[in-house]
Structures are given as C-alpha cells and as structure tokens.
Design brief:
This protein is of the alpha+beta class and 226 residues long. It contains nine helices and eight strands. A hairpin with a 4-residue loop joins β6 and β7. The radius of gyration is 18 Å and the shape is globular.
C-alpha cells in the first residue's frame, strides 16, 4: 500500500512551518550525533531554524540500543508485560525485554506502582495511567522488532540520556535551536530542547510524523518558519 505523502508545510497557531527531512547514513553507536548533524544538515541550516532529531538515533549514539541476548529478564518483567496494553503506534512495554529495560531504568518499585495505577485506571475506564506513573524513561522505550533500521531490529532502544543537554550541544554547534523528539504516526513528544525553544510548537509542527517511521532513513529534520 502506498504511503500518503505528507505536506512539507504545516500551520501552527497561525504560523506556517516548513519541515525539511535530512537523509543520513545509518547512525551507529560510535557516532557523535552533533557531528552527524553537522555533516548532513550543516549546509542547509539557517539562523532561526530548529533542528530536530529522532530520540532513537540519539539513544543509539549513547550506546542505549541493547541486543536482546544481553538482557536478563527477571521474574517480575515476565509477570508484568502481558498486562500492558499495546499502544496503537507500537509494542511499547508489552514485551518481556522492553519491560525488563523499563525496570532497569526506573526501578522495580516505580514500575510496580505504575502497574497498580494502570490496573485501577482500567477499572474506571481510564487509559494511560501506567505510562503516566512510569514516566518518559519508560514510555520512550522501543521494543525489539520495532526499529526502522535493520541493524537494530533485535535491540531494545532505551530513551536517550540528558536530551536537553544533547539539544543544547546541537544548537551551539550548528548556530540554531534544537530539539530531541519522539514522533510516530499517532503522536509526537519533545523529550528535550535547547534554550528558547517552545516545545509545544515543535510538538504540534511534527504531529503528522514528517520524518516517517525509519525506513526513510531521515532521522534528522529542520523546522523553519515559512
């Protein structure tokens, strides 16, 4: 089935924004994300632009793509993952390996509390309580088999560390503003941004996932006021 082509521009609060996808090579753990952006997007960046980068590639460059054969799944993870509702945009923590990574990242106590909150929420017809309590470090974890890049298909990709600091490094190196984003075909979120960025504007400008889901190999983009 053909993918519906997305408009390069979008209106946010009466302001038109141009979204420019930037194609790169496959980004690997040994890469520096700042250098990758300078190499592939540097010549296109103008003052006032916001460079946005997928949280997955930031995490990969931080060594946070973990092969499943390196993950020791605990009794708790095996008991909890079947009770997690599968989200429309992917598997999330409904997988023994990604659940174990959430426990490693957030602690068993917090994940147990999130599970209780999720169960209570279901009783009253409310969704999302599990992820609200577990936090963004759990919600941003990508289960194995969901990465759009073949080299990382068998990995759990954790949320990036210190996304605000990463965005600030990009901004200072490239002479623009920057954001680290988690975007899919259902929703968008800004995990971190440089000083001066309106996170809600960026979120709204990327809500239709202009970079695609990974096969396009465009993990970087430029947001420009049209």
């Amino acid at each position: 089935m053909a993918t519906k082509e997305k408009s390069p521009t979008i209106q946010v609060a009466g302001q038109a924004f141009l979204r420019i996808p930037v194609r790169t090579r496959v980004v690997m753990p040994e890469d520096d994300i700042v250098q990758v952006i300078r190499e592939y997007a540097g010549e296109q960046i103008r003052p006032g632009d916001i460079v946005f980068v997928s949280e997955k590639v930031v995490a990969i460059t931080q060594g946070r793509a973990v092969p499943t054969d390196q993950i020791r799944v605990s009794w708790l993870a095996d008991r909890l993952w079947p009770f997690v509702r599968q989200v429309p945009y992917g598997i999330g923590l409904r997988n023994r390996y990604s659940m174990q990574c959430a426990i490693d990242e957030c602690g068993a106590g917090r994940i147990l509390l999130a599970a209780v909150a999720g169960a209570v929420g279901k009783l009253v017809g409310r969704r999302g309580d599990f992820y609200r309590v577990a936090g963004i470090q759990a919600a941003a974890i990508d289960a194995p088999g969901t990465a759009g890049i073949e080299q990382f298909r068998n990995c759990v990709i954790k949320a990036p560390k210190d996304p605000d600091q990463v965005a600030q490094r990009i901004a200072e190196a490239c002479g623009c503003e920057a954001a680290v984003v988690d975007v899919n075909d259902i929703d968008s979120a800004v995990l971190g941004h440089s000083r001066g960025v309106d996170a809600e504007t960026v979120r709204q400008a990327l809500k239709d996932n202009p970079l695609g889901q990974g096969a396009e190999q465009t993990p970087v983009g430029i947001l420009r006021r049209a």
